[in-house]
Write a structure and sequence with these properties.
Blueprint: E1 2-9, H1 17-26, E2 29-34, E3 37-42, H2 46-54, E4 62-67, H3 79-88
Antiparallel strand pairs: 1-3, 1-4, 2-3
Protein name: SinR family protein
Length: about 90
């Protein structure tokens, strides 16, 4: 399994954030501490994740999915958020 950063801008007023968030949670183990940014540990590849999520977005919305390398740095997150990052990147 790989970890992926999922970022989006929901530019369409008709996009249902709740449905999109529920679909992201179905992809695997997830982290969500920043608006519009998720990290998901999944057995899918980036194009499969795009395909899974694109039906929950409108043409005006933007979606980015990138596989993470395993290293990172962060500040300001609570212990739970930091622990998840350390265990799953």
């Amino acid at each position: 399994m790989s970890s992926y950063l999922i970022g989006y801008n929901l530019n369409s007023a008709s996009t249902d954030y709740i449905l999109l968030a529920a679909e992201i949670k179905k992809l695997g183990t997830w982290w969500h501490h920043l608006d519009g940014i998720w990290i998901v540990k999944s057995g899918l590849i980036a194009t499969q994740i795009i395909n899974e999520l694109s039906s929950f977005m409108e043409d005006e919305d933007e979606l980015l999915v990138v596989r993470l390398s395993g290293s990172g740095a962060w500040i300001g997150f609570n212990e739970t958020g930091s622990d998840w990052l350390e265990e799953n990147l």
